[in-house]
């Protein structure tokens, strides 16, 4: 009994330490967000160092380790569920059959009753406190690794200051001019693609014989290297984009790509129209350079695309930016939206129609649940906008276009 109490006391102490670590993680997350200058000066270098080491190793692996880990976790959960159900059924069957025996213990006292016991031998159970301590320690370790490798700096805005953008409120006229700018450049890129003989912009990647995933990844890597020469926030080793083998299944969740600091991989859903994929790849690569906020990663992806020397990659950046801008412009002033729409090349509009058709094909319960989980995940990481944060890329696009105009 004393040994059991000592053992429980040990696990209680471990559980308390784990809970304290989880609370400390939450406190540090708030403190680092409140003091961004300190965080960028002292935490960001550590985060970049850890991520660089992980990316350096993972870039040599030709497949998505993230996908393998997720598959193994799902398989483990499925096996545990099956084992649990089988165990429950066996237990119920034994009870229904009444397979019990009576064991009479040697008892000297008068009126003693025999004790009833199950036929099967008693199995040694893992102490409950040990299981609780194991779970809490695992959670604490995962949280702290996530924090130091990405989470502590995730919600700190760095792009506007990093490239010298003025983040001032804008009116619908500026939004109109930005949308028109994107339309003009998307039109020019689309026409240039036709001249170059590239006709499959709206084709799905798996059906295209003109799109080269690895070549596009190399183009974007070079583009980020070039951006890094101008802006320090883009310096470093970007993650190598990796195709997800289960892309079509993942499309039902509405996920276009994902970056996890635990593996340092830019995982890409390639079940996508060709013209949209370079922007997605560049977005996830931006996350790997510790651009945490979704709108900033989207804008960084835009910069990487339009800064490249490849026409398709440039078109992807301008076209997806145009899509974001037109959505906001329609909400602000439908008349201005239709004015811009009339000036968009028919080929671009056709690409948008095919993109919308492809996305809508997968909408349903799974997509809605996934969106809710993603929304909650982003909010937990400190961005109160949740999935609405993606649409805030337009703020940065407006500032960038204003910066391009002659003074």
TrEMBL record:
Residues passing through the membrane, by range: 12-35, 68-89, 132-154
Sorted UniProt keywords: Membrane, Transmembrane, Transmembrane helix
One Pfam family from the record: DUF3810
Matching InterPro entries: DUF3810 (IPR024294)
Domain of life per record: Bacteria
Name the record gives this protein: DUF3810 domain-containing protein
Naturally occurring in which organism (per UniProt): Feifania hominis
Lineage summary: Bacteria, Bacillati, Bacillota, Clostridia, Eubacteriales
